[in-house]
Amino acid sequence: MAANDMRDEDETRANAGDPAAPPARMRLPLKTMDDVKAELARLYRDGKAGKRDIADVSKLANVLSILGRLIEGAELADRIAALEEGSKR
């Protein structure tokens, strides 16, 4: 029998103290530009206060910036579609 087979069935990576276990997922509202702006501001404050590594802050801010551009593009496409629909009438 392999060593992994001998583990207690109730033990999981989350409760086994495994350092490779993924952190708990955070559900943040990031559907609007206001949501993204608020998260960027929170991230900045955490970095400024030393609560997060600046390299991590930079990487996350970059992802949020991309997300913001995607939201902006989708909102613009919706507005253009509405204008085109209005001009057909």
Helix-and-strand structural type: mainly alpha
Computed CA radius of gyration, to the nearest angstrom: 22 Å
Secondary-structure element pattern, one letter each: HH
What portion of residues is helical? 55-70%
Indicate the mean pLDDT: 84
The total domain count is 1
* Number of beta-strand segments: 0
Number of helices: 2
Q: Span between N and C termini?
A: 74 Å
Outline:
elongated
Tell me what you see in this structure.
Residues 1-26 are annotated as: Disordered. The chain is mainly alpha-helical. It has one domain (26-88). 57% of the residues lie in helices and 0% in strands. The chain has two helices and no strands. Helix 1 (33-48) runs antiparallel to helix 2. The longest helix is centred in the last third of the chain and has 35 residues, at 54-88. It is elongated.
Short description:
This protein is mainly α and 89 residues long.
Features:
89 residues, mainly alpha
Task: Annotate the secondary structure layout.
Blueprint (H helix, E strand, L loop, with lengths): L32 H16 L5 H35 L1
